Amino acid sequence: xxxxxxxxxxxxxxxxxxxxxAAMAQVPAGQWIVGDSAGLAARMMVTLLHAADADGLRPxxxxxxxxxxxxAAGADPQTARTLDAALSAAATRFLDDLRGGRTASxxxxxxxxxxxxxxxxxxxxxxxxxxxxxxVRPPFAQYAALAAALIRYRALPPLAMPDLGRLPLRPGGAxxxxxxxxxxxxxxxxxPPTAAARPIAAPDTTYDDALVTGIRRFQARHALEPDxxxxxxxxxxxxxxxxxxxxxxxxxxxxxxxxPRITGEPLLVVNVPAFELVTLDSGRAAxxxxxxxxxxxxDAPRRPTPMLASRVTRIEFRPYWNVPPSIxxxxxxxxxxxxPDYLRSNQMEIVGPGDTVLGxxxxxxxxxxxxxxxxxxxxxxxxxxxxxxxxxxxxxxxxVYLHGTPAPELFLRAQRDLSHGCIRVEEPAALATxxxxxxxxxxxxxxxxxxxxxTGSRVALTHPMPAFVFYTTAVVHADGTVHFHPDVYGEDRRxxxxxxxxxx
Length: 504
Fold this sequence. Notes:
Blueprint lengths: L1 H24 L7 E2 L2 E2 L1 H11 L13 H9 L4 H24 L15 H10 L3 H8 L4 H14 L23 H11 L20 H13 L10 H7 L3 H17 L8 E5 L4 E5 L10 E8 L9 E10 L3 E2 L2 H14 L3 H4 L2 E4 L5 E3 L4 H8 L4 E4 L10 E4 L8 E2 L13 E3 L3 E3 L2 H8 L8 H9 L4 E14 L3 E3 L5 E3 L6 H13 L1
Parallel strand pairs: 3-15, 5-13, 12-14
Antiparallel strand pairs: 1-2, 3-4, 4-5, 5-14, 6-11, 6-15, 7-10, 8-9, 8-10, 11-12, 16-17
Helix pairs in contact: 1-4, 2-3, 2-4, 3-4, 7-11, 8-9, 12-14, 15-16
């Protein structure tokens, strides 16, 4: 009885939420009804709601079972009014979810004047509900690729974890579960279907060359060293259930719904969990990135790089590094008190109001001025500058930007959450050249000259381009392969919990 009451209360709450949603959307009454029964638009909309899972959404969130019952109840005025209100509520919530996400975006609400009820009414009148759904979906090529990958992962057959025996398992070693491992890799697409063709008499108990090739491909897709050796990390990835990968794909689609709408203009995207930056000549068109490079991001968990949406406005060559107040207080001042010559040996200087240079010796008076915020420290441009020789600026409240580094050896590490929050890039000259592609005078030769030049310079973009600092652990590459990355900041866990709460 208690469980039944709880279910009834939950159903009532869901219905109330949907009706409140319809009221806020200001959907005209009676738009789904012809006479005393559902019109063709109503039946089409219910069909589209049933297909919400194709977008990584939950049809149950839109009360599809209740809508089916109302459609089947026949024609009478009361049923028609109930169906009309319920369907308007479900449809507007679905459109809002599809366009902006089911949970609150860390980027804040989108303020572009779009209103679900208005768009829905126009689509009903124009017999264009399917076109409306297509227009509302995020316009990124990645979104369509994720939707296709979601279909594939949902269709995976139940697969048992292979018996790998004692780890690490090296090429040529004996493994009792070789056959099961082969079937798993074939199902995931890391081995071709022809891998099943083996001589009948041959025992399938060896970690042979074909399996090693499949494991290397699997490792590369799961942010693991593709060495062909099955250690604990690779075994754990092999044992991750398909439901977890499906949830990652659905969450990746949700996060794309948080982003601002884009046109076909060039796009710069940082993916924090992948420790990777890509540039796209068009965010809407499918195809390989123009650039793909390794990056270093904020340290987890103390200084995570935030999710951002902005536009690149300028490039700085041979920039100064203005030491942030937090680094000055927590790290630099203690060093200066121990070693007054630290500034001089690191090409740093103290500056006051109006960028007046006060010197590079940490006298007690200057240290006191720094401690009270009356002065600050900056590092002179050059090879040893913490920002390297290139800085890419996209305005944001967190003061995060892209820059080079005097320590390129750090890009060889697998896990690269090493910075104070800003993003170090592996190939700053190539990135600057791509960003400046809309400025005809700025060829690669001129970029190289500016980097090598004796003084710093700034270039403002004539047409600032979109830049997203994104967080997703599931990415589909241009060749269709699906890559999964560790949840370096624990954001997947928190976001999935929020989505479960919304569905309840």
